[in-house]
Amino acid sequence: MRRTMNLLPWREMNRQALRKHFFIKSAFFFSLLLVLLFFTYQYQEGKLNAQLERNQLINNEIDELALTLRTFSTKEVERDALERRLDLVNSLQKQRNNATLLFNLLPDVMAEGVVLDKVSMKDGKVKVEGRSHSNAQVAHFLARLEKAKGAKNVQIHSIINTLNLSIDDENRFRATFELTDHLLPVFSKEPQNGR
Q1: Which of 41, 129, 167, 193 is most deeply buried (CB count within 10 A of its CB)?
Q2: Taking the model in full, what pTM does it have?
């Protein structure tokens, strides 16, 4: 009889050892993969949270900037209103010189024998009413007024001789002229719509 050697149990044991070794390696790599996935997830989650915090910080800064811009817009409107008031006050201050210009001009142009009864000024246009003993005195007054640097557009509107009206022998006259250095009020522009 022949003796046969049974190698099957050895093969079976070897197969089981290989299978066991395969499952151990698979479990190790699967565990390693899970650990890697966990750390990758944690890393991505950390980056995402950091980005969300940065976004929240940026949104907070944007809100603060919007509030600051609204405050600046309000302050700009207030500043514009204040500038308009200051321009008006400065313009009125400068206009105070208009009367001084007129009162400095009149003594220089007055002719002997001419009396001014009424002087009025509006927007740089001066209207004078007066009297004199002769037309020559009125003509001399008007000539001096036309030559004066502070007056322009001199016009005589009427000369009335009151000799026939049984009043003192005099000529009544009305004339107008404009001050050359007259200052008009300057108003700053109105605020634009949308402010």
Answers
A1: 129
A2: 0.47
